[in-house]
Amino acid sequence: MNFVCSDCGHKESAATYKAKCDKCGGLWKLDYTAPKFDLEKIDKDTWNIFRYREFMPVEGDSWRNISLGEGMTPIINFDDDVLFKMDYYMPTLSFKDRGAAVLISHCHSIGVKGVVQDSSGNAGDSVAAYCGRAGINCEIFVPDSTSPKKVGMIRAHGAVCNVIQGSRDDCANVCRAKVEKEGGYYANHVYNPFFYEGTKTYIYEVYEQLKKIPENIIVPLGNGTLLIGVIKALEEFLSAGIIDKMPKIIAVQSEACAPFVEAVKRKSAVPVQVQVKPTLAEGIAVGIPMRGKEILEYIYKYDITVLAVPEEMILPTRGKLAAKGIFCEHTTAVSYAAYQLYCKQFGKMGKCLIPMCGAGLKSEPW
Fold it and tell me: Which controlled-vocabulary keywords does the entry list (predicted)?
C-alpha cells in the first residue's frame, strides 16, 4: 500500500516515517480504493469500528490488541427532525477515537516506537490513549487555550504534554519544527490519511443503524478530520449505488475563526487568512487548516453550505442541550447552534444528523 502526494503525485510506501512528500512538501493521500460497501460483509461479532475492516486499509491484526471498543455509538431522536449521533460515548469521550484507533494500529504494524502530535486537545487525548494501549511512546503539543481536563487526560495516559503559548496554529508550528529537527513519527490527525480511514466509519455506522443516510448532515469544521471522513464514506456509497446523490452537508465554523466561510464568500480556492479570536469552540479554532485546498474542493464539488456560528450562541445552546440530558463540550454545541441558525435563515429542513463529538466534562474548568 502506498501514500501518494496530493500535489505532485509522488508515491511512497505507506510504511514510510515521512510526514509529507519530500519532493514538494505536499500532504499524503492514501492510494486505496475500498471494496463496494455491503452490510453482509460487516463482521457483526466485532464490537468496535474494525467490524468494517473489509472496507478499510487494515493490514495485519495489530488492531485486535489496540482497539478500546471505539465506535458503535447510538443515534437518538432529539426531536422530530434532529438525530444526534452520540460520538462522545467513546473511550476518550470524543469522536477522534475513530481515527486514532486506525492510525495507531498502523503505527504499531510498521514498528513505530514513538510518536509526536499537536492537537487542540481531543485528538491528543485519543492518540495518547491508543499509544498507551499499544506501548508506543507519545509526546503531545497543545495550545494554552486547551481545557485543563484534556491536558490532564493526555498526561494520565502516560504521554508527555507540552502546553504552548499562542494559538492552535502556533502550537502546530512548534510541534512540526521539533519533528523536522529531531525526527520521529508525526502521528498527526490532519497529515496522516489513515486517520480519515477511521473517521469514515461514522457514516458506515449511520447506514448500518438506520439502513439509510439522512437527507441533511451537519459537520463541525476546523481541520476537517470528520468532514473528510464523512465525504470519503459518502463517495464510497455513491460508487456502490447505496445513495444516488449527496445529502445536504452543512459544515460549521465559529465566527471567531472562519477561514472556510470567508473563502466561500470570495470564491477562493484556498482558505482565507483570518485573525483568530478567542472562542469557546477550541476544537475548531484552526486559522490555517493544512488540508484547506482539498476541503474547499469538496465544498465546491458537492455544494456544501459553510456556516459561521456567533460566539454568543454557544453557551445558551450548550445549556439548552444539557437541560435535555445532552452534556456536550462547547465545540459540540456549535453544531446544534448551526442547525438552529440554518433553520432561522433558510426555513425548516427535513431529518438532520448532528454529531455529538465531545463530552461536556472535557471542557469544564474544575
Answer: Lyase, Pyridoxal phosphate
Q: Report residue 49: phi and psi, to 5°.
A: -65, -15
Per-residue pLDDT tens over the stretch 210-244: 999 999 999 999 999 999 999 999 999 999 999 99
Reported as a single tens digit per residue, the pLDDT across 11-28 is 999 999 999 999 999 999
Q: What is the rounded CA–CA span in Å between residue 174 and residue 183? A: 13
Instruction: Quote the pLDDT of residue 366.
Output: 57
Contact 45, 25 (CB under 8 A): no
pTM over 0.85: yes
Does residue 102 have a pLDDT over 70?
yes
* CATH 3.40.50.1100 domain locations along the chain: 75-91+194-363
